[in-house]
Known about the structure:
By secondary structure, this protein is an alpha+beta fold. The protein is 51% helix and 11% strand. Residues 291-292, 337, 342, 345-346, 384, 386, 391, 394-395, 398, 444 line the site of iron/sulfur cluster. Iron/sulfur cluster is lined by residues 291-292, 337, 342, 345-346, 384, 386, 391, 394-395, 398, 444.
Amino acid sequence: MFLSVFDVFKIGVGPSSSHTMGPMVAGGAFIQAIRDSPFKVAGLRASLHGSLAFTGKGHATDRATILGLAGFLPDSYVATKADEALEKIANSKTIVHDDLGALSFDPAADLIFDYDNDLKGHANGMMLFATDDQGDVVMQETYYSIGGGFVLTEDELAQGEKGQDQRPVPFPFKSATEMLEMSKKSGKSIAQIKKANELSRMGPASLSDGINRIWGAMNDCIDRGLEGEGILPGGLFVKRRAKSIHEKLLHEAGLNLTPPHTINDWMSVYAMAVNEENAAGGQVVTSPTNGAAGVLPAVIRYWLDHVPGANVDRVEEFLLTAAAIGGIVKANASISGAECGCQAEVGSAAAMAAAGFCAVMGGTPEQIENAAEIALEHHLGMTCDPVKGLVQVPCIERNGLGAIKAISAASLALRGDGSHIVPLDACIETMRQTGRDMHSNYKETSLGGLAVNVPNC
Ligand code: SF4
């Protein structure tokens, strides 16, 4: 299955790709299904299940679902308009669409968190219902938010790969082994074979414009995060720190007083800036998810700002290489914390960032594969246990540490010749098995780990 660079990197809204973006997309898809149906619909209802129920409040899943039903989309989301729309819906108890009229929907009664009935297809399940003027259900659809903002209906999930884009691409690699073989045989870099695949779906101008837009959104998010102050929403009273750390780093720069390890703070602060923006409900780019959105932009920004010879013209190479790795991880394991724990989110992000960084630092395809493997290997087993169900603790710092690991992994790989003991494919399979065996308390339910051991009020 072909996974475009624009599927991996999507401009969206915080705090979570699976719990915020996905439900918003599902809401919009359901409204479209109503439009395409023969039914006269008078009302809407929704239920959230599994992880969407357990951590949905902290992830604003209820808000996102309602906004999706009201026609909001993650990539064009404007917070002030969303707040106005939610207030209107709460007061009028209706969601109004020009073509469908006023559909009854009372947020307090018509959206339920169902903690008792998990849906069988995936940990992140939700059901949307359309009712007639008697209140009887005339349409319903089950959606699964499978991570990274991807949403599948029950049927699409059952179809698996058959339901995905099956059109051929020039380099149809499904594993890291195949990717390396195709790269070697063609004499092209990983970024070049990924680019050839992308160009089978769009023209060069669209590809380059889209990638520039993605990097622009990532970089803007870092800049906004470095200016943000105050306390993050959600009731955990987490203070935004990126701005003050950044100011201290700027002050110290050039004074020749700081120890060498201070460079780690630069790597961290860019990632923390993104994840503080994400936690505040701001615009971020899934990389590959919102929870892990800081790692990859931080590594690019570190490279551009601190590494001699870095050139913004090569960001495309970075992102294409990273997307190639992200596609392999998603196809063979998962990028979802609810499916495989945080190893699948921050671990995958670190693997992607390590690969991209290794590529722009002149690494061979073998060194790039090695870099991704080192980064992922040293996230294996990492659980997802967000305190109070908020994508704040441990998530914000964890992205900083993920960026540091990614850069260290690439640097180590560049010291070798690409040969190593654990193939990336074996590491990805290990992550899948570890995630499968991980207790559900550690998969974005906030029922274990830090979430139950940290006082949160
Ligand atoms: S702990 Fe990791 S997987 Fe879980 S919400 Fe935070 S960043 Fe996402």
